Amino acid sequence: YHVDLLDGSVLKTKRLVVFNDRDDTVVTFDGATMVATCDQTMFIARNSSDGPKNPFVLGAGGLTVSNDYAVTIPDTLSGTGPLVKTGTGVLKFAAAQAFTGTFTIAGPVDFNGQKFSSSSAAILAPGGSIVATCNGDSISGLCPLSVDSITATAENPFAITITYDSDPKANTLYDLFPSYSRWTKEDLEKISVNGLELEIRNGKLYGSITPAERVRSNRSGDNYTANVGNWDGGTAPTSYDTAVFGLIEGGTVTNNLGSIVLGSVRFASGAGEFAIDGSSLDLRSVTNNSANVQRFACAVTDSGTALDIGGDGDVEFEGGLAVGS
């Protein structure tokens, strides 16, 4: 049973699934384009693991995947042809890949830690990026291909976007490319990693997260947390930063930072008595070193696994507290 998608053919679909279990089933992409019409976890897939083994083949013309939605290929693509990824949606792999043609990345790709053929090479085209996931202990899914096989230019440096699906650990070194140990300082000019500080040790490339401390000086005179004039240095807290309420008078503070995760809220030993209201706060720890009771009139959540509460002073959660939500 053979299906050939030939040069110039365009298939706009939510998914392409092989339902039969015949071992001679082959779907060949030879110059075809698949356009995703929705988010899909089985974009190119067998309906069952009992189906034909590796039925999807890239011919000489290869396949272009164009997706502005998040799609996953859960099966193996084989053959000698190329694969091209375009569009703004993430293309994720959920199986090892055996095709040996060039992989041109012109949109976000999540390798998801899957292995690729050692004969395959990747070209990072304009708009291309490699999406990785931090699961709290390690960063996975960056690039299973040899760094030597990735082509990057000054106009289009090697770009990686780190997304956090759990708690990244501050001051922890993450091994970004476990299988490669020949990085040089010159290579750092080719790579840009959002949210991480890069470091080379013995040829290995590491990234680490160093959250900042933002101290509230209250000098602008209003009570909004997003007002940069309320913070030393003119910078309000961003994701995983620590918000420090220092040696200033207390009062009502209205949170309007938006949907970010704060690493910590800390009240210094000389801080006044505060009541924080406004939008809900998602944070990882609260420390009250002051002699005053500190109150959260807004809802407080910890979308991680545990909320650490420290210091000698009392903390009251009047707006509700949810941990692990």
Provide keyphrases for this structure.
325 residues; mainly beta; nine-stranded parallel sheet; seven-stranded mixed sheet
Structure notes:
By secondary structure, the chain is an all-beta fold. About 10% of the residues have low confidence. The chain has no helices and 34 strands. A hairpin with a 4-residue loop joins strand 14 and strand 15.
Structure summary:
The protein has 325 residues and is an all-beta fold. It is built from no helices and 34 strands.
The structure class reads mainly beta
Number of strands: 34
Give the biggest beta sheet.
9 strands, parallel
Averaged pLDDT: 80
Strand portion: 35-45%
SSE layout and pairing:
Layout (H helix, E strand, L loop, with lengths): L1 E4 L4 E4 L2 E3 L7 E11 L7 E3 L9 E11 L4 E3 L3 E3 L3 E4 L4 E3 L9 E3 L2 E3 L11 E3 L4 E6 L4 E2 L9 E2 L6 E7 L9 E2 L15 E4 L2 E5 L2 E5 L4 E4 L25 E4 L5 E5 L5 E2 L1 E4 L6 E5 L2 E3 L1 E4 L5 E3 L3 E3 L5 E3 L4 E3 L3 E3 L2
Parallel strand pairs: 1-4, 2-4, 3-5, 4-6, 6-8, 6-9, 7-10, 9-11, 10-12, 11-13, 12-14, 13-16, 14-17, 17-19, 22-23, 23-26, 24-27, 25-28, 26-29, 27-30, 28-31, 29-32, 30-33, 31-34
Antiparallel strand pairs: 14-15, 18-21, 20-21
